[in-house]
Amino acid sequence: MAEPTILAAMALEGALGWPSSLHARIGHPVGLFAKIITGCERALNRPAWPDWQRRLAGLAAMLALIVMAACVSALAVLGVRAVAGNWAWAVLALLAWPALAARSLDDHVRPVLAALEAGDLVAARRRVGMIVGRETRDLDEAGVARAAIESLAESFCDGVAAPLFWLGLGGLPGVWAYKAINTADSLIGHPEEPLRAYGWAAARIDDLVNLIPARLAGLLLCLVGGGGWGTMLRDHALHASPNAGWPEAAMAGVLGVRLAGPVRYDGVAADKPWIGREGGEAGAADLRRALGVYRRACAALALGAWILGILGILGIVGSAWQV
């Protein structure tokens, strides 16, 4: 996609996030993906079927979802270019805007930090419970801070770096196909029953499309954080995901704290290994530092888009002048 479009989409999301008033009126595009994904799962994930059949059904549903998202987006691009002409880049930026989540993620993490700094652990648990899947009712300050930092690091890939990567590589069809895949992974890509077989394709496809962005996200966090390389290279494989460990281990190394460790999901304990095991316990001050690292990483991406955008605008102006 043209650089001015990427820059404008980033500027819109950075300034506005996804406003609650807009969400109340029209929802969010991923909500449509969620309805399609859950509807297909109810229809196709039949307990009586053997695992191979449920895997095949899940793969077919994923391919249909990806093709639908890409084709609808491609038709939108053709329509916008036909109608808007030289201003198509601005309209396409509006359509790409909801696929990015840099400001939205910041908006969700800040209340957790505010509650921790105010000493209100109950509110902090409630706030962090809105952005993580683990049980939060018994978390201490370190557990809340750790959960928020992990979410911030992992979502830097899923919500910022990867969407920008696919927006730049595949335009509007690329970024919305990615969002469909990522939404499916979050809803059905689980190793537990009854989703283990049916959600296998969603999890593996999500692993594939995040392969490069996750590593780029980890490298960028280390770069703007001024360190963390050793921890990232050593501990990224300790994460259950082949991708999420890169930004998470990078953040642990930058901050000098340990992340992951034992957690509980729906009453079941998960004895996860520590990432950054030699680091200290996380606290409110570390969460504030993590937000700073995250914002600098987002700013670095914006600067790159701005430079490319200026070059793109100069190219458009030059072409128009020649005409």
TrEMBL record:
Membrane topology recorded in Swiss-Prot or TrEMBL: Multi-pass membrane protein
Keywords, in A-Z order: Cell membrane, Cobalamin biosynthesis, Membrane, Transmembrane, Transmembrane helix
Transmembrane segments: 56-78, 84-102, 297-321
Pathway, per record: Cofactor biosynthesis; adenosylcobalamin biosynthesis
Subcellular location: Cell membrane
Family matches, as Pfam families: CobD_Cbib (PF03186)
Main location: membrane
InterPro entries: Cobalamin_biosynth_CobD/CbiB (IPR004485)
Family the UniProt entry places it in: Belongs to the CobD/CbiB family.
Name assigned to this protein: Cobalamin biosynthesis protein CobD
